[in-house]
Write a structure and sequence with these properties.
It comes from Brevifollis gellanilyticus. Keywords: DNA-binding, Transcription, Transcription regulation. InterPro entries: LysR_HTH_N (IPR000847), LysR_subst-bd (IPR005119), WH-like_DNA-bd_sf (IPR036388), WH_DNA-bd_sf (IPR036390). This is LysR family transcriptional regulator. Pfam families: HTH_1, LysR_substrate. It contains twelve helices and eleven strands. Strand 3, helix 6 and strand 4 form a beta-alpha-beta unit. The protein is globular. Helix 2 crosses helix 3, helix 2 packs across helix 5 and helix 3 packs across helix 4. With about 300 residues, it is of the alpha/beta class. About 25% of the residues are buried. The strands form three sheets. Strands 3, 4, 5, 6, 9, 10 and 11 form a seven-stranded mixed sheet that branches. A two-stranded antiparallel sheet has the order 1-2. Strands 7-8 form a two-stranded parallel ribbon. The protein folds into three domains: about 80 residues, Winged helix-like DNA-binding domain superfamily/Winged helix DNA-binding domain (Arc Repressor Mutant, subunit A); about 110 residues, 3-Layer(aba) Sandwich (D-Maltodextrin-Binding Protein, domain 2), CATH 3.40.190.10; about 110 residues, D-Maltodextrin-Binding Protein, domain 2, CATH 3.40.190.
Length: about 300
């Protein structure tokens, strides 16, 4: 037994990094900043730099290229970063399960929601679980979809809710999906001038109006623009935003027209200030709830997933 133990210790001592070094590398890639990564790790930037230099020397590979303005990750670094996120996520998941099953802290579900979802989408996510399991703490954050997918891989979130890219990464699975239909809305005063009886005249009128559009870098923003192109509806946005709730409020204040989820209008109280304009066709996006594949979810997270109401 002593001989075997020595052999194991010798084997581990020859490995180019341990979980701590892998975690530090993951933080540098996540933040693309030695300063921010060091702050999260509780180290000085110089100490973190030495750790990364040691890691590269032991691997014999360049992982990170640091300039005065940013941190660039090499191809080898990107490969290691992907595997590191999965490995760290698995370890974190095991520790979370340990605390959830044997610790005294309240169980917690971390939900990352895309910025392109509106407040009216939230009750379907949280209401049933809150009623049935009030002891579970929900920690909710808003992020771009790409950030949510990365967080799922690294076990920094349990559930992601977003408009999915195509294709989805093979590391996640869809637990729920629904179609989100959009409506064209206008300020009441402006809508009174719309030629509603003729679709051809209406389309010309629409293209002459100011528009509020969702950010073109989002999955929904890209899909919406492709759909508008197919409808031969060419507009130049007066404003681009990342929140449908804000867009609806600005339309009500007279800033222009917008295409917004029908569901997002449900919670808006000043409905007399907005008019839904008729359209021959309607844009629909898909919204999904995601968890990571190949990872057994803690019981309280499984229950939360089961209680999602869409």
């Amino acid at each position: 037994m002593q001989v075997l133990l020595q052999a194991v210790q010798q084997y581990l001592s020859t490995k180019p990094f341990d979980l701590h070094a892998l975690h530090l590398f993951h933080l540098v890639v996540k933040h693309r900043s030695f300063t921010r990564a060091a702050r999260e790790a509780g180290l000085s930037p110089s100490a973190l730099t030495r750790q990364m230099q040691s890691l590269e020397q032991r691997l014999g590979l360049s992982l990170i290229q640091r300039t005065t303005r940013s941190v660039e990750v090499t191809e080898a670094g990107k490969f290691l970063a992907t595997e590191a996120a999965r490995l760290i996520g698995s370890v974190t998941s095991a520790l979370d399960g340990l605390h959830a099953n044997f610790g005294s802290a309240k169980p917690e579900v971390r939900v990352s929601v895309s910025r392109t979802l509106a407040m009216a989408h939230m009750p379907g996510l949280f209401h049933a679980n809150h009623q049935r399991h009030p002891e579970v703490v929900c920690r909710v954050s808003y992020h771009p979809s790409s950030t949510i997918l990365t967080a799922l891989d690294a076990n920094e979130t349990d559930i992601g809710v977003l408009c999915p890219p195509s294709p989805l990464p093979d590391t996640v699975r869809v637990t729920h999906r629904f179609k989100d239909r959009f409506e064209l809305i206008a300020p009441a005063e402006l809508a009174g001038k719309a030629p509603l009886k003729r679709q051809d005249r209406l389309k010309v009128w629409l293209q002459a109006q100011p528009w509020l559009m969702l950010d073109a870098t989002t999955n929904t923003g890209k899909a919406l623009r492709r759909w508008m192109s197919r409808q031969h509806l060419s507009v130049q946005p007066a404003m681009e935003l990342d929140s449908f709730d804000l867009i609806i409020n600005l339309v009500a204040s007279g800033f222009g027209l917008a295409l917004v989820p029908r569901r997002a209008l449900a919670l808006y109280r000043r409905k007399e200030s907005i008019v839904i304009l008729p359209m021959a066709a309607h844009f629909e996006r898909e919204v999904v709830a995601l968890t990571r594949k190949h990872r057994k979810l803690p019981l309280h997270v499984e229950r939360f997933v089961e209680n999602i109401l869409f």
